[in-house]
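Researcher: Please generate the 3D structure of the following complex. Treat every line as part of one assembly.
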Amino acid sequence: MALADEQGHYESKFEFPLWKIIKQHAQKKDISYQQASLEVLPDYEKGIRYRDTAYEEEVIGKRLKEMAEIAQRAKR
Amino acid sequence: MALEQIADKVVDTDVLVIGGGIAGCPAAAKAADHGLRVTLVEKSNTTRSGSAAEGIDHYGGFFPRGMTTQKFLEVAEEMGQPFFDQRLRYAHPDSVYRMYANGQWAVEELEKLGVTMRWTDGEYRFRGCHHPGPFLRVHWQNVKPEMAIGIKKKGVNVMDRTMAVDLLTHKGAVSGATAIDTRTGEFIVIKAKAVIMASGACSRIYNPETPQSWKYKYTYHWCPASVSGDGWGMAYRAGADMANFEMAGRGTRFRDDKNLSYGNHGNEGIPAKSINFEGIERPRGLRSADPSGNSEPNYNSFEHLPDDYHKRIEVCYVDERLLSFKIAEERGFDPRHHWYEIIDNRPNQLHFGPGIWTDGDFKATLKGLYVAGDVLHGNGGCFAAATAGFIVGDEVPNFVNKAAEPVVDEAQLESLKQAALAPLSVKDGTEPTELEVSVRYVCDRYVGVSRAEGKLREGSRRLGSLRREFLPKLIAQNPHYLMRALEVRNLFDIAEMHITACLERKESRYEHARLDYPAADPALDGMFTFQRLQNGKKVFEMRKRPEFNMALYETK
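Model: Done. Output below.
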């Protein structure tokens, strides 16, 4: 990962894609960021694939195993 | 003497709700539905106050319709149980059952209050993650304004910028509370037949590790600076039983001003990788094995995830903490390439474990005092708060309709008034922040994660010394700073309960770790710590937690 001492980390601006859309919308409509966020969210969500079943089943299964392991350690 | 000669304002109501948050607003709304006169006091502004001020992205942990208790427990077992186990550890099992069993009803009541639970497509969006049982992903950026509007429509008398200071009691029962207007400085008496305490938890007796911690900055958006345990101080001084104050929460947070929400990722089911400072992946949720913290820093990574997951995190930020975008922008933080440093081994707030003790019907040991939300022992989170709030609001009429007119003891009132307004008369004294930082220092240094007899006794001695020497010298130049001074008074009571409980529990269990008693003592299995003030004297005892008998609930 890009560590704190590598060039670029904490040195340059970064915008979450949704944040960029929110700011642009707010500027265009002359409204608050908060109001803009509510207005742009529905369209942004349409572009998100919320159900990636195969991947989710794999990671949720892994998570269940991790939690069971943690529960076992807590009991000891 | 008439009360109007002692107080600047007198309010007469049936039910006083202290705290305008996720528990207080439902409680007020439901009590008002029954035709009661309801007054709600909130020391900031109900529209954007408390832990839900910036929004919430999830709601839940409740039985889906048609699920039996047995099935629910099986689901929790499959999910590794620690979450459900955590709930039962500190709470009265009857109250836990009632919250879970009434979860669906609470969802319907929230919709009636004007708080929508549905996703953008109009359907409910259930998630299954670290909560046993389903929970909902919700777009609750505006949950507070919606609740504030909802309760006003129901005729609740909302007193914003009004800090409740002390409970009034008469012959072992509550009869209302004193309060101050944090703008005008008016001293207010609120007479009430019943009081619902919904004032939240406490996030200010430990150092938040933010830059310039001596300023009133957020410790974490979920438990912000305004959450100072006022209800705990009030209930303790009034003589109610207080439970489990050795259990400080060590919930995981992100470092860097704790402003990039950890909770968001879990609530959306985002599978982060947990990596230590050597770059080695470790199981998520595993508390650092080394209490000294020498295994830190630890990180969460989202680099491996498809773009859809990053977009889902962004939607979480809109729902729960819009500010996170701006902060990330200014710092150049990009979770597609950078790791979040996490803190998971610091006592950062008193939450989930400690609280005002109640029976299974949310009634405290003081007659007429009901409790809901994070201020309640063994509870936390918006689901528990809202559901308990609705239950209490629905049932308080049974008490109020039979209760006599509240009696205010004038001598008690005069004494409480003097104590409340004293900082305004101090000419050359101690700033509230200065004293608060000293309290946090005592907890950080002498309590913390790894406790021991000698450290705790020194902490107790120092806290006592600070209390005797500096608490009477607290200075407040205006009503707003009077509020800060009164918060510090509450923090002293909470820190004192915290240290006492840590001293008395001579074992290690859950969030309580003693270096000198490193193992759990079987003799203390299922035992809770209790404290109260009785005739001005501190009383401590340990009592067995009520048993959870599932057979009793199966037919309900």
